[in-house]
Fold:
Amino acid sequence: MDPDKMKGMFRKFVMEIVPIMPEDSDEILEKCYGELLKIAAPPKKPSVLKDGYYLFPGFEATTAQHSYDNFVPRDGDVLVASYAKTGTTWTSEVIRQLLYNDDPELVKNARGFNQLYNYLEYGPELFSTTGNKHNKQKSTNLRNYFPVCKYEAVKAVKLDRRCFGTHLPSNLVNLKRFKKIIYVMRNPKDQLVSWYNFVKVDLYNLFPKDEREFYDVHIAGKQGCFGKPGEGYLEHVKEWYQHKNDNNVMFLVFEDMKQNPAEKVKELAAFINVKVTDEKIKEIVQNTSFNSMKKSAKGREADNGEVMTMFRKGRVGGWKDHLTVAQSEEVDRKVKAILGDTDIKFTYELSS
Structure:
């Protein structure tokens, strides 16, 4: 992508939050913009977390560590946890509309609390409290550092309740600090196809360009993002599933949401303690339908074929048009090997 186009895209991304920030926030946002260019503009390699977890460019190990050690959410905050391309953006939008359902203007403006600000591990690298950049030498004490733009903006944003997101494994999230956590699951075959279509415009040259090769590499656990080498989406699910009976955790299945959206929105509302009428639930279902969200995303993302876009088809069963029989069978084998001791049963197509 042309560097000037990227700068413009990043500035728009950073400044979306202006309507819900205090008037004296210019300095914070300028820091956000400058540092976002450094961490997310190509060329950029994945950041590496402790224990060997790799993150996608823009998601930073030091920011993730700071979040675990220092970030204290408010009691009313909600965390949407997931592996990439399992329904994260959709679920977060439903939560956002539930949280601000009685204030249409806030529903609109709160979109500015976007990925840069709401993902625990996303955002600029760390600065010291004296303003000197962290020299990147190995340190066991990150408490003296903080991601200036990220968490200053998060603290200052004018929202009583905030919706956060994360793609981190459960052991790298300070689970006890969040009162409400929603983990989103999707069948691994559609997740795989969605992930390919998301990253095929790969600015970082991290992935195979050939579609079948991409699937082979990722099924083998060599995806290089949001997991350890040799691991991937299924291991992420298994780690989080250890918390299925925690009082502050709710599991949401993408395919269930597609089949019974009103019922699931009602369940989500009850879980996050939001009172909402049946009429408002119908409205939220309509506003968060795939077509509605794809339409509203136009203009907010540079839909010019040069960047990754958040919305493609959003359907169940699309994997059948992409995976070979052998690839599908290998996914089935891995599901049995990794999740066979759980009660998880994925839905690969919906009945008509």
The chain has 15 helices and eight strands. The mean pLDDT is 87. The two ends are 42 Å apart (CA to CA).
